[in-house]
Every structure is written in C-alpha cells, then in structure tokens.
TrEMBL record:
Organism: Pseudoalteromonas porphyrae
Sorted UniProt keywords: Chaperone, Cytoplasm, Isomerase, Rotamase
GO molecular function list: peptidyl-prolyl cis-trans isomerase activity
Family: Belongs to the FKBP-type PPIase family.
Catalytic activity: [protein]-peptidylproline (omega=180) = [protein]-peptidylproline (omega=0)
Lineage of producing organism: Bacteria, Pseudomonadati, Pseudomonadota, Gammaproteobacteria, Alteromonadales
Protein name in the entry: Peptidyl-prolyl cis-trans isomerase
Domain PPIase FKBP-type: 6-79
Amino acid sequence: MQISKNSAAEFHYTLSEAGEQIETSTGNEPLTYIHGLEGMLPGLETALEGKAAGDSFSVTLEPSESYGERVDDLIQRIPLKHLQGDTKVWKAGMTAMVSSNQGRHQVTIVKVGRFNADCDLNHPFAGKTLTFDVQVLSVREATSEEVSHGHVHSEGGCGHNH
C-alpha cells in the first residue's frame, strides 16, 4: 500500500543540517502520522506521498517547506510556571514546551529571571535548510476514529476523550 490521503504511516527519520546530524528517531519510537491532515511538515508530507513500507529516501527542505524563516525579536516574557520540560532549573539556551491557545510550542530560553523567562518563540529549526533521511516502516488505512481525532492510535485507543 502506498501513502495517500488518510493513510496511517509509521517511519524512522534522521534529521541533519549541512551534513551534521541534529536528531534521529532510530533506536526510539518511530514517528506516526495520518497523511493529508496537515500534521506533518508540508515538504516532508509531499516527499512521503506515494511511498510504501520498506522505502527509504532523503529529502532536503528549505525553511519555507519546514519550520519557516526566523523572525528577529520574536521574544516573549513567559512565567516560569508555564514552561514545561525535564528540569526544575531553567537556563539560557535550553528549550521548553509552552501551551497556548494555539497549541503546544517549543521555545528557546534567552534569559531567566526570578519569576519569568524571556523566550525566543522561533522554532529552534526556523531558518535552517534541513535534510531528512526517512525509512518507511508501515502504511495502512487509518480508521475513521483516527481520522476524526487527527492522529494515529496505538493498540487500545488513544487514551483521551474527544
């Protein structure tokens, strides 16, 4: 089966910039998504179209096809209690997750005060030309419940109520 609209696809990826590896899913859980629901970077989703289990490929994405260009001065002061991550002590240069009414966003901490942190709202990969090496593991038709929820469910459902 080939990846097309409403396919549930599972794949491993290695992400690099200028030949230097940034992150990889290999050795961890693969990435899953439903094709055509805009839950994936546009350029990567285009490259995945028509691929099947066992396919491996490489695609290089300009910022416009991935995380966008960097916006200078996109700094916001955020209360420390709103920063989510694996640490109790925040320092400049660390990344954190922040929930807003637009969803969850990754931010980079620029400066930490007693109660607030100045955070760069640009995604850490904004402005970068990124290369994804992808290995497609499985492709299947998504269930109607998965399509309505907008994500792939693991065995036993998704663990939240809609």
